[in-house]
Amino acid sequence: MLNKLSWKVASIFFIFIVIVEVLLFSVLYTNLVSDQVDEVLDGLLARGNSHRDVLEKSFDDITLNHVALMETEAATDVIITNNEGEILSKSTAATDEITHLIKDNDYQNTRHIGRVIEEKWRSAPYIATLSPIVVEGEMMGHVYMFSPSDSVQQVVHELTRQFIIIGLFTVLLTIITLFILTRFLTLPLLHLKQTTERMSMGETNISLEMTKRKDELGELAVAIQTLARDLEHLKNERNDFLANIAHELRTPLTYIKGYADIASRSSLTSKDREHYLKIIKEESEQLTMLVKNLFALAKMDQNQFSILPEQVKLCDSLDKVINRLHPVFEEKEVRLELECPEEVEGWVDPERFQQVILNLLDNALKHSTAGGTIQVSSNKKEGRAVVKVRDEGSGIPSEELPFIFDRLYRVDKSRSRASGGSGLGLAIVKEIIRLHSGQISVESSLGNGTTFIIDLPGGENNG
């Protein structure tokens, strides 16, 4: 059974093709009918001119009777008149219609050539021609040729019958052809539709044979199969994301509940209770930061994360961040250096830019050891502002580098609390840089530290 698309495609093509066929058949039919009628009229006139030629050579009773006798065995009739319109010889009885035609056309033709005097084959009983008889320059009479209109109508009817048969055969052939073509075109589309319905129901492990085609349907099949793979990847990422969120939420909540139970014991000393309350506070802050980061990512996904860029001297912003973090770095005995030419400017949101640098420095500090150095530098490159944050930590394995900006991804698969962080910081950094029309990349190898490279719009009129 044809599907809806097949019906629509077939109907549109059928209507269009039938209109074209009707126009072509109409023109062809009209021309053929006209040619057939003209052929009959020309033949009748030629026969009359032939009789006229004989009579002009011998205009006597014997010849007149001979001409009339010849037409008695033919489908046509002849009537020969003198110059006064009197009938000299005839092959048929002069009916009222014939008499009327003779009276209307007698004496009117003074030319030496014949002509058609009646061509209304649809309504008149006869078609007729007139051929003047001229002997030595003197008009001697006229040869009237008559043919029943039925002969012309029979030719036209036969032609019409043939056209109807051919037309019906053409329509039938058109329907069959359209049926085959629409099925050939729409069956792959129907298969693709069924595949997308399976995808909408959650099935993403699909394989389409149409990907081997070298046409638009093949390209569409490739696109759908690629979409299915992307959906499978997104589904896996969503499941991992939910599992990671559950883990990240469960860990601080477990600590808070456990230490709250311990702190509530009456036998606990004040010093121990203060210690456990401090841990509860730290875990609460960790939980608060996690929720805050999740809300920030949600706003980014919904395009509700506001970025208000302006022309900023990056050295000033970097200096503010470093001054805020110096006590923390000194406590861990990690050196923090800034290398920034004063002329470096960027088209950034100052608050969001500082948030990016804070995240990167916090991440670098967590992976640095005492005595290490973290360097922040900036420079201009081809009208862009480039900021680098480099540490001397343990580095990141090369196989992990493509995933470090993924949400809740951490190189430390054990998720030990010593490594800190929730795995959202770098994801937020990447989104903020993207919203600035910038790019962030990372270079790292085990034992040689890590360098984050930020490329931002720089100079004037970049908004």
From TrEMBL:
Sequence ranges assigned to domain Histidine kinase in this UniProt record: 244-460
- State the membrane topology: Multi-pass membrane protein
Task: Supply the InterPro entries for this chain.
Answer: HAMP_dom, HATPase_C_sf, HATPase_dom, His_kinase_dom, HisK_dim/P_dom, HisK_dim/P_sf, HssS/ArlS-like, Sig_transdc_His_kin-like_C
- Classify the main location: membrane
Listed EC numbers: 2.7.13.3
Q: Name one GO molecular function term.
A: kinase activity
Record's Gene3D superfamilies? 1.10.287.130, 6.10.340.10, Histidine kinase-like ATPase, C-terminal domain
The regions listed as transmembrane in this protein's record are 12-32, 163-190
Could you tell me what this protein is called?
A: histidine kinase
